[in-house]
Amino acid sequence: MSLPSDIEIAQSVTPRPIAEIARRLGIGSERLEPYGRYKAKVDHDVLEEKAGKADGKLVLVTAITPTPAGEGKTTTTVGLADGLARLGKSVVVALREPSLGPVFGVKGGAAGGGYAQVVPMEDINLHFTGDFHAIGAANNLLAAMLDNHIHQGNALDVDTRNVTWRRCVDMNDRQLRSVVDGLGGRTNGLPREDGFDITVASEVMAIFCLATSVADLKARLSRIIVAYSRTGEPITAGDLNAQGAMTALLKDALRPNLVQTLEGTPAFVHGGPFANIAHGCNSVIATRMALSLGDYAITEAGFGADLGAEKFLDIKCRVAGLKPDAVVVVATVRALKMHGGAAKDQLGTEDLDALEAGLPNLLRHVGNITEVYRLPCVVAVNQFPTDTPAELRLVEDRCRELGVNVAQSEVWAKGGEGGLALAEEVVRLANRPNSFAFSYPDELPIEEKLHAVATRVYRADGVDLTPQAKAQAKALEELGFGGLPVCVAKTQYSFSDDPALLGAPEGFRVTVRELKVSAGAGFVVALTGDIMTMPGLPKAPAAERIDVDASGRISGLF
To answer: pTM for the whole thing?
Structure first.
C-alpha cells in the first residue's frame, strides 16, 4: 500500500482556529488580523508588551550539504518543536515562507513533510498572506521610479550603463534573466540592458527579514544603492525619495504570520531569502517574537550549514544581537551514501563503504558548529525504512568521536512522538552555557573576511578574487562598506564553488568573480562560480503535477 502524500496528510487534519493558538501564546484578538480561520498576522506591539521578559532558548536547525536524496530539515524542525511540546515545553517555531519558484519548479511544497508539517500547507506554499507580492511590488516600484527619473531628465546624472537595480518576479523564469527594455520610441523610456531576479533574491527581501521595525525598514530601504552616477557616486532609493512609498507597500507584510503545526504547536512563517544567493533566514521580527512568546524558539536556515547556518550565525545573529543556545545538524544515511559515491538507485541497499566515504561531509559541518562557532550540537538522523542498524551505528560512532550525540528522528512517520529523543537532547544542550563566536571579526577587510569563511567554514586552501572583484572590494571599502559582513553566493551542492565536488573536498580554492553591496540589508555579496539570481524550471517542473478539482481541493503539491 502506498504511503499518503504530504498534502493528503495535511488535508486529513482539521487545524485549531488561529485565535485559539494565539490565546495560548497570550496574544489577544486586538493584536491579531485573521486571514481566514487558520492564519493571521500579529501586531508588532506584542513584542513591546513582552519587553522585560527573559527570552527563550534559541535553537537553530541546519543540515549536511544537500543531495537529491533529501535531508528533511524543515520536517525535522517541525517535528522537534512538536516533540518539545510533548515534553511539556512552551515552544514556538520560526520558519521562512516558500517561494513560488521552487514550489512550481523542483521541490514542490516546502512546509515540512509527513506528520511534521505546518498548516494550512496549501496556503503557505501558494499566496499565503501576500507578503512576497508586496516585496515584489516594492522592488519593482523602485525600478520604475529609477527609470522614470532617467526619462524625466536624469537630474542625478545616472550612468545608464551602471544601473544595478533589477526587477523581480517570484517565479523561476530563465527567459527574464537578461532583457533589453525601454524599446518602442522615446515616450517608452530609454533602451538599456536589464534583467529580473527571483523575488527571494531581491535586496528588499533581505531588508524585510533583517528589519526590526517599520522605522528601521524605511531607513534600510532608503540606503539601497540602485545605480552609480557618471562620476562614480552611488545613487540610492533615498535620492529618488522612494523609501516612503516602498514602506507603505510593505508595512502590513512586515507583521509576522502565525500558523500552527499539525499538532497545534504555534509557528511563525515569515520572509524567505534563499541561502545560496542571500542570507537564507526568516525575519528577525518573527524570530524575536518566537523568543519572547516561548521558552524555546526553533528556527532553521536554508540549505547546508556552510550556507544557511554560516549566514544565520555571521549575519543575522551579528545584525540582530542573537545568540543561539543549541544547533541541530540534520542528516540522512541515504544522503551520506550519495556523498560517498553511491548511485541514487542504490541508496536503499546497505553500503558501509559508501557511508564511510560520505561521513566526512557531516563531520565537517559538525566540526564547524562546535569548533568555529563554539556552539553545542546534536546530529539528527532523519530515518528511512531502508537504513540498517549497522549504518546507523556507524554514524553514531563517528559523531561520538567528535563528542557529539546522535538522535534518531522519526518525525515524518510519527510527528512529535518521533522527535522525543531529539527534543530531550536539545533541552540538555540548550541549558548549558556556550561561548558563541563569529567566524570573523567586523574589522577585517572584505577580502580577509572572505578568506576566513573560505578557509574556516568551507575548509578551502584560500580565496581568489578576480581583477574585477579586487577593484570592487577596493571601491566598496573606499565608500565605507568595508566593515559590513559578507554574504557568499555559492552553490548549495558542495563546500566548494564547484557543485561536482561532493563530500568533504580538500585542496581547492574559492574564486570570487564579483562583489556588490546590499547597503540596505547591511552586507557585501560575493558571487562565486556560476551562481545565478534567477533560476529556471526543470525539464519536468512540479507545476505539471499540481491540480485542483471542481470543489477547489488542491492535489500534487508534494
So the answer is: 0.95
pLDDT category, 273, cuts 50, 70, 90? very high
Q: Are 29 and 19 in contact (CB under 8 A)?
A: yes
State whether residue 509 is helix, strand or coil. Answer: strand
Residue 488: per-residue pLDDT: 97
**165 is an active site residue:** no
Residue of 247, 11, 40, 246 whose CA lies nearest to 129: 40
Question: Of residues 165, 208, 312, 384, which has the active-site annotation?
Answer: 384
Burial label, 96 (beta-carbon count in 10 A; 0-12, 13-18, 19+): buried
Any alpha helices (H) in 496-540, and if so which ranges? none
Average pLDDT over all residues of the chain: 95
- Taking only the tens place, the pLDDT of each residue in 540-549 is 998 998 999 9
Cell numbers standing for residue 423:
527534543
Neighbour count for residue 439 (Cβ, 10 Å): 17
- pLDDT score recorded for residue 1: 55
Cell of 365: 559541518
Which grid coordinates belong to 537?
Answer: 524550471
Dihedrals phi, psi of 148, to nearest 5 degrees? -65, -40
DSSP letters, 211-266, are: --SHHHHHHHHHT-EEEEETTS-EEETTTTT-HHHHHHHHTTTTSPEEEEETT--E
Q: Of the listed 268, 412, 481, 508, which one is catalytic?
A: 412
SS3 letters for 24-82?
HCCCCHHHEEECCCCCEEECCHHHHHCCCCCCCEEEEEEECCCCCCCCCHHHHHHHHHH
**Is residue 271 over pLDDT 70?**
yes
| Spatial distance between the Cα atoms of 85 and 245, rounded to a whole number of angstroms | 42
DSSP, collapsed to helix, strand or coil, labels residue 165 as coil
Tell me if residue 107 is catalytic: yes
Please say if 75 is a catalytic residue: yes
* Residue 303 designated active-site: yes
Give the active site residue among 31, 41, 89, 96.
96
Write down the catalytic residue from 107, 318, 456, 516: 107
Burial 125-135 (b: 16+ CB within 10 A, else e): bbebbebbbbb
